[in-house]
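The following record pairs a protein chain with its ligand, zinc ion.
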Amino acid sequence: MRRVVVLGSVLVIGFLGVAFEAAQGQAPRATLPDLVKVKDNLYVIGASSPADRSMFTGGNTGVFITTGGVVVVDTKLAGYGPTILEKIRKVTDKPVITIVNTHTHGDHTGSNEGFSATVDIVAHENTKANMLKMDAFKGDKAQFLPKRTYKDKMSLFSGKDRVDLYYFGAGHTSGDSFVVYPSLRVLQTGDMFAWKDAPLCDRANGGSCVEFPKTLAKAVAAIKDVDTVIPGHSPVTTPKDFEEYQRFNADLVASVQGAMKAGKSVDDAASAASATLVRKYQGYSSDRVKAAAQAIYDELK
Ligand SMILES: [Zn+2]
């Protein structure tokens, strides 16, 4: 038994390289993609898929250059602070003045510590509460927790520099912010729209797959004036895709809930939902439907 465990560990070392090196305070292995311009003064440092842990760097990072300095939305896994700054330096000499964390997860908050402790850090109040539970923000690292929080809506800066943060309820976690750059008509969704597949609903951090489509419906209804969407972990897209994601989630919950009422197993509910959804929604995967179905069963039982 022990021998199997040791062999397993050797095999796993390659995959854990990123986390291990980050823990050692060295540069992580996987390199970040270059900045991609979304609109004037707004760039994205792209995300990689969490499916391949050796290449995983974290979620999409928004880089918004305002009159007074740079706003960074989500900071990827730990260890990427210097590289994020290096990329920002290619487009501006202005200092980073504000970080927004869309939610608590380490692939969106991990490199908060890579920035100056004087940087203003902003998040939803539930996200701060979730971050307080993380080892990564204990002791000295508490200085990289959000300094300012909000409940329903918050605006940062004004005029063409304005950034609006909205909260519409539980979904991926209990504290997901939708970030709007009104002058540019761009919405950054965090992991309320991470990819074209079922969502991850982190119930330990107050997430809810049942609430997910309701929360998205509120966002779709309230955030009208945008023409571009930056998802959590996939390439820049359109509001049409974001609206479609709301319908996908509504169908997912309805399908799984129906199967549950009919006394089906989670496996059967997931297979049925996958088959229907993949047929109806082009370009979607169903790799995460099973986990979402399980979350829905756990929530409703
Ligand atoms: Zn997340």
